[in-house]
# Entry
Amino acid sequence: MPPVPAVTPAPAPPAAKVPLPAGVLTGLPTTDQVLAWTVDDGSDSEVVRLYVEFARTSGTRLTFFLNGSYPGWSDHARLLKPLVASGQVQLGNHTWSHADLTALSDAGIVAELQRNHDFIVATFGVDPRPYYRPPYGYRDERTDAAAASIGYTSPVMWYGSLADSGLRTEQEILGLADQWFLPAHIVIGHLNFLPVTRVFPQLRQLITDRGLTTVTLDDMFQR
Ligand SMILES: [Zn+2]
# Structure
């Protein structure tokens, strides 16, 4: 196989980290001009590849909440791994098969998170704990406790969405980015459909125009 080209030097993340608050995260507790752009699932392998390429060529810092059951994560592990190693892209646990945690037993919740955890550790050599995102955002005190029993103590929700877990147009995605790419927001997008990949330059420009710096959760919080 050809060598993976050199990684674009990423802009430095903010120097000062804050203590990780207990429990559910929905935003970033800061007055800094930072945006946590988080991206989930990965049902389309080509979208996974294009998002990784976007990160690599733009230096954008991203957090991927991945489901290891989607082949794209294995298909493109070699391309993604250096970005994970450098910290530019952080990996969070989104369960193995995108399960509704509230519909599972405690043991089922643990099994879904553990299988995905093991995949991430084996494939990328990093430990995602304590960060996970409950699929569909479905969680309650019981699911939180089951996840916490294996170290997943921070369910990461969001405050703003590109709404592209299903198919959306490029214009819809840009409109939602205009609405939600704001300081201290955690915004959710998806690696499922191609339209977002066709507006990466505009999304990048929006971030620049607003004076925002992208951050991962590890850029922001002390573990
Ligand atoms: Zn999801």
Remarks:
- The CA atoms of residues 105 and 143 lie 9 Å apart.
- The mean pLDDT is 94.
